[in-house]
Amino acid sequence: MSDVVRADGSVRDDLRSGAVMETHLDAPLFARGKVRDVYDLGDRLLLVATDRLSAFDCVLPTGIPDRGRVLTGLSAFWFDRLAGIVRTHYITTDPDRCPPSLGEPVRALAGRAMLVRKCRRIDFECVVRGYLAGSAWQEYRATGRAGGRALPAGLRPGSRLPEPIFTPATKATSGHDETITPAEMARRIGAPLARRLEEASLALYGAAAATAERCGFILVDTKFEFGLEGDELVLIDEAVTPDSSRFWDAAAYAATGSTESFDKQVVRDYLERIGWDKVPPAPALPSEVVEATRQRYLEVYRRLVGHPLAAPAAGAGRSARADGPGTH
What are phi and psi of 193, to 5 degrees? Predict the structure, then answer.
């Protein structure tokens, strides 16, 4: 029971939360991922970030209001700031600059729709880690390595690494991605392209981590995705959001070593606490977990961008008429 922007011009509204869970625009559907509905506009794509949320590789029935707008707004923020390092696919989030054929429906999705250039995706996730956390800690504890790279002995969960490391992963269509070594990536796609991906990823992480630090965050790790336009490397998908990154509060880390993440960890903790077996269908989330998660996303946006997320335009993503003629 959530918002659905439909091709017949209707929006199904979850009166309890107002989360946008699915869209249906009068344009060919390119893909429907865990979070984004992607529409094919020829040499461009329209990425619509919904409020869907996945945990343990399962999309939950409960969305997080404003999450999609946070993801889109933060990605636009970072694409603007990182474009000097590598070209990005970002064109605009302004509905008035979208193809006129989309009309009013795209205005109903203002703040969560992004027009981008279509690129040839490179099917690897380019992960950079500055601190020891998550799967990297698990690997280090077992082998003394992370991403196949030997690390100094004696590191603890949350330790800062001597230098950021590149730990690429395969991009799975379902289930978990698989971390591989840079050498294995080079074997699969060729050393020149693998080297470009590693260099670009490390440079992007360095710039983003410095910005996050000025805003009181530690950028623990983050994932980038790239495509090619001809031979030119292009940053695609999203950039340095709570979905693709792990943020810790710098002051809390310095004072107590706290590694509480500003992401959907609240949801994972709840699902673990109630003993869900991680087999679909997933359980619905209670309102307090939804709101706690929503506030974390909003706080990341506020601190990084420098102001709170603006309220949606009247009717946007809620009860506005959402499509033109025709059905999809």
Answer: -70, -40
Tokens of 187: 């074997």
Query: Strand 20-23 to strand 3-5: parallel, antiparallel, or no bridges (unpaired)?
Result: parallel
Q: What is the DSSP string of 42-98?
A: SSEEEEEE-S--EETTEE-SS--TTHHHHHHHHHHHHHHHHTTTSEE-EEE--GGGS
Residue 56 maps to a domain: yes
pLDDT in tens, 65-117: 999 999 999 999 999 999 999 999 999 999 999 999 898 899 999 999 999 99
User: Where does a domain end: 92, 118, 144?
Assistant: 118
Query: Helix H segments across 144-190?
Result: 182-189
User: Is residue 212 within 8 Å of residue 247, measured between CB atoms?
Assistant: yes
Separation of CA 323 from chain center = 26
Tokens matching residue 133 = 């956390």
Which residue's structure tokens are 């310095």?
254
149 and 244 belong to one structural domain: yes
Q: What is d(CA 284, CA 290) in angstroms, rounded to the nearest whole number?
A: 10
Provide the greatest CA pair distance for the chain. 63
Q: What is the pLDDT of residues 145-181, one digit of tens each?
A: 999 899 999 999 999 999 999 999 998 765 567 899 9
186 burial via Cβ count (<10 Å: 0-12, 13-18, 19+) = middle
